[in-house]
Amino acid sequence: MSVPKTSRVPASPRRILPAALCLSFALLIASGCGNRPTRLADTSASPEEVCQRTLDALRHNDTLRLQRLRLTEFEHDSLLFPQMPVSPAGAERDRDFAWRLLDQKNIKGIRRAMEDYGGRKFSLVKVRFTRPAETFGELVAHKGTEVTVRDSTGAEFVLPIFGSILEDDGRFKLVSIKD
After folding, report:
1. CA torsion, ordered 63, 64, 65, 70, to nearest 10 deg
2. Cα separation, 174 vs 98, whole angstroms
3. Among 68, 140, 154, 178, which has the minimal tally of Cβ within 10 Å of its Cβ?
4. DSSP designation for 81
């Protein structure tokens, strides 16, 4: 009696493609393809770069660019707020309230900064923080941002528009524009 040969049926492309994608993704992660990307969008390599980009947006009267440089609602809600000490009861309400308050201050601050300094060219002299940094999980909030600039006449002064600067894995982002 002869044993029938089993013929192998090729796998369906519908089964191969998802498996191949999962394997590729797993290999990519396992290979350690660089540092963990920052979770904050549109970040800078240093506090000085954050401030220079802000000064550039002011010089060009670019309100939208200034808006993009600051912390977003998503970043606040998903990255910063969960790391902050808050009461468990009503945490969602507290998060929404905290964001609305920060956003309103930012809107006023951006409007005031554009009215007072928009279109003017400043050279960055130095950035320093006058208050201790505060750590929230993996995030570090650098507080009391004091930015010294030089105007076109050569006069140096502290530009009073910068709020805290947030650091995530060596990348920096402006939290707010002072109102």
Report:
1. 90
2. 16
3. 154
4. G
- Residue 48 CA to residue 178 CA, distance in Å, equals 17
Backbone dihedral angles phi then psi of residue 169, each to the nearest 5 degrees: 55, 45
In the three-class reduction of DSSP (H, G, I as helix; E, B as strand; rest coil), residue 89 is classed as coil
Annotated domain spans of the chain: 47-174
Tens of pLDDT along the chain (179 residues) come to 555 555 555 555 555 444 444 434 333 333 334 444 458 999 999 999 999 999 999 999 999 999 999 999 999 988 888 888 765 666 666 888 889 999 999 999 999 999 999 999 999 999 999 999 999 889 999 999 999 999 999 999 999 999 999 999 999 999 999 98
